[in-house]
Write a structure and sequence with these properties.
The protein is α/β, with parallel strands linked by helices. The protein has helices at 14-25, 57-66, 81-86, 88-109, 142-159, 192-200, 228-243, 261-272, 296-302, 311-326; strands at residues 5-9, 30-34, 48-51, 69-74, 113-119, 164-170, 172-174, 207-210, 222-223, 225-227, 249-253, 259-260, 278-281, 290-291. The protein has two domains: 5-174 and 226-253, NAD(P)-binding Rossmann-like Domain (Rossmann fold), CATH 3.40.50; 192-224 and 256-326, UDP-galactose 4-epimerase, domain 1 (Alpha-Beta Complex). 39% of the residues lie in helices and 18% in strands.
């Protein structure tokens, strides 16, 4: 039986490109829409590619005219917390206004299935951990606020009868596809694991630890890391559930285990054989001591189970990719 065509907005980015790869492996025809402002054409592993901007409705309409799109997966957001604080209008325009343009074209084309890449940043400072989907949402930066705004828009559209959606709130995406063909490439890079590995490849001199006096076992922040391929498998499960008639859903995606900054650095040292010098620096404003997901809902409802639950395995896949990128 022929599977329906899926549009991946932002499919040239880190998570989007892995989503395209796993959709293709699962037998779905895929169209990627990306303006390549932050994505990379060479990371798109196959399918159709349309160069276009969600800020230009004509670009979106062209894709829906040319292809029989059955569902949309949205990865085309800006996602740097610090940048969002400094340039809030950029984030509200790209993450909210441009998403509205996409949703309007979907309505016109009568495409009702939407899977949204959201974030744990919608929760703000956690009141308790692990964090469940019912935790109050009180984002502390424009990035989280822009994601929460879209979540509300999706709810209102569904109440009007025009949308069926799944919202996936990520914790810390990490790693690379086991094939080594695609991985994480950001300019600038802000995620801890690639920053640590860039010290091992010689691209950086040292890694900075922002605060070593938190109320955690070793004084550094604890974070929940989830392998990017586990993220994409969760998207596949929610896609199939939506296409099969399942109702709207919101799911946390994490391993439900916290690893400290020092644990990440020590594991990277063991894997790479590099000393990876670390410099302690003052805390960054807004960094919670602990962020850990309760992902029980998607495990129970859709049978999702992470394949990469050990941080060493996650970092090993990332190291394979970053060595290749650095040519070593």
């Amino acid at each position: 039986m022929t599977k329906p065509m899926i549009l991946v907005a932002g499919g040239a980015g880190y998570i989007g490109s892995h989503m395209v790869l796993d959709l293709l492996r699962a037998g779905y025809p895929v169209v990627t829409l990306d303006n390549l402002s932050r994505g990379h054409r060479d990371l798109i592993p196959g399918g159709k590619f349309c160069a276009g901007d969600l800020g230009k409705p004509d670009d979106i309409e062209r894709v829906f005219r040319e292809y029989p799109i059955a569902a949309v997966m949205h990865f085309a957001a800006h996602s740097l917390v610090g940048e969002s604080v400094n340039e809030p209008l950029l984030y509200y325009r790209n993450n909210v206004t441009n998403t509205l343009a996409l949703l309007e074209v979907m309505q016109q084309a009568r495409v009702r299935h939407f899977i949204f890449s959201s974030t744990a940043a919608v929760y703000g400072e956690p009141q308790q951990t692990p964090i469940t989907e019912d935790h109050p949402c009180a984002p502390e930066n424009p990035y989280g606020a822009s994601k929460l705004a879209v979540e509300r828009i999706l709810y209102d559209l569904s109440q009007a009868g025009d949308m069926r959606y799944s919202i996936l709130r990520y914790f810390n995406a990490a790693g690379a596809d086991a094939s080594g063909t695609i991985g994480e490439r950001h300019h600038p890079e802000t995620h801890l694991i690639p920053l640590v590995l860039q010290v091992a490849t010689g691209e950086r001199e040292a890694i900075h630890i922002f605060g070593d006096d938190y109320p955690t076992p070793d004084g550094t922040c604890l974070r929940d890391y989830i392998h990017v391929s586990d993220l994409t498998r969760a998207h596949l499960l929610t896609l199939e559930a939506l296409l099969g008639g399942r109702d709207n859903s919101i799911y946390n995606l994490g391993n439900s285990t916290g690893y400290s900054v020092r644990q990440i650095i020590d594991t990277a040292r063991s894997i790479t054989g590099h000393t990876i010098p670390a410099i302690t620096a003052p805390r960054r404003k807004g960094d919670p001591a602990v962020l850990i997901a309760d992902s029980g809902r998607i495990r129970e409802q859709l049978g999702w189970q992470p394949r990469y639950e050990n941080i060493r395995e996650i970092i090993q896949t990332a190291w394979q990719w970053h060595r290749q990128e650095a040519g070593i």
